[in-house]
Amino acid sequence: MDVFHFSxxxxxxxxxxxxxxxxxxxxxNILSFAENFEKRFSRFxxxxxxxxxxEAAAGTYPVSPDFVFLLQRAKTLRxxxxxxxxxxxxxxxxYAGYDKEYRLLPQAAVESFRLPRWSLExxxxxxxxxxxxxxxxxGKGLCIDRLSEILAQEGYRHFLVEGGGDMYGNVKLDDQGxxxxxxxxxxxxxxxxxxxxxxxxxxxxxxxKRRWGNWHHIIDPQSKKPIETILGCTAxxxxxxxxxxxxxxxxxxxxxxxxALAKAFDASYVVFKSDGTILVSENWQGELx
Amino acid sequence: xxxxxxxxxxLWIALIAGALALVKFFWKPMQxxxxxxxxxxxxxxxxxxxxxxxxxxxxxxNPSGSDEIGFTLGIDDKGTITEAKTDVLAANPTxxxxxxxxxxxxxxxxxxxxISTLKEVDRVGGSSLSTAAFNSSISALKAQL
Lengths: 289, 145
Hints:
- The structure holds two protein chains of two kinds.
- Chain A is of the alpha+beta class.
- In chain A, 28% of the residues lie in helices and 30% in strands.
- Chain A has a domain at 59-127: T-fold, CATH 1.10.3980.
- Chain A is built from seven helices and 18 strands.
- In chain A, the strands form five sheets. An eight-stranded antiparallel beta sheet of chain A has the order 1-2-6-7-10-15-16-17, covered by helices on one side.
- Chain B is α+β, with helices and mostly antiparallel strands.
- In chain B, 26% of the residues are buried.
- Classes of the chains: A alpha+beta, B alpha+beta.
- Chains A and B meet through strand 2, strand 6, strand 7, strand 8 and strand 9 of A and helix 2, strand 5, strand 6, strand 7 and helix 3 of B.
């Protein structure tokens, strides 16, 4: 298998191809798409759409079709998690220290943070004041799917697109799925299972990474505290966007919401709770150790 | 159930432990249990090779009354569990939601394996690689201290 590595969206990416070499032209297209995606959506980049309303007054604003696409999914997640998932919490992450300079020093402003309100209607975004968006893992999931579409359009079939440990696997040369070992949350040397990824996306999320002080990057914007009830979770769905939506939903809701989430994103999942319990969805396919 | 391996014994234990935990955690147990077992009943023969199944119904107290929940286990001719199912029987919405959540995701026992010992793996899915930028800033931050 041939592997093409690159960096983007603050993480490392790889594209594995089975029996097909990536043409130079394709690599260029991949790199420019990923770079452009980051410019358009990263909270850390000043010219991005996520930052466009940082100083904006209350009102209704036009947004790009891709941004609408992200906001629509965010709206679904916001409903399914009872408001705990909300991409309008970008400034809270900054106040907590997770800003573009990675200062990692929580500021007093955390206490006074109030979650801005936003709504979407007819492809237009209405806000009640300045807002900074951070979509979390679903942005990366969308980028993985878009890169997979580029590969398919350019005639590739036997590929696996991976972005920071999340991935979409199409199909291998022998028509089998890609065999993916799944990392145990917080134990990079240990796998909890193996899945066969065929025309599916898998997302893996945990709260061990990106920790500073009492904080990590998965935060309840209402209590202004990091989520500590789950150590990590993994979800498999028909694409990466849905798989990443599922892990975000799992992290930011209680087990009572899991069935509705799994239905919305047609996903299976494994959740490692902080109390040591491991929950495996009844539709999970694959080996577990 | 999708998990049909030799680890099913553990799953069995996990299921019972989970059921007990559910009952113990949310409510205190109350009445007796009715256990019914049926030999190769027709509706059980679908899809999986279930040759025997057993169903348990139990009742427990909750803060607003009492609820019933059922558990069904099926085994094949080798004694491997082919099915482990929670039967949602609660009527009130809160209890129903909790029972449905329990049915959708069963508490399981996993021990993990050393990744280096796994054969024929194409890639590892996990978040340990996802944080290049963050980790490099942590190092930079530490260097300043």
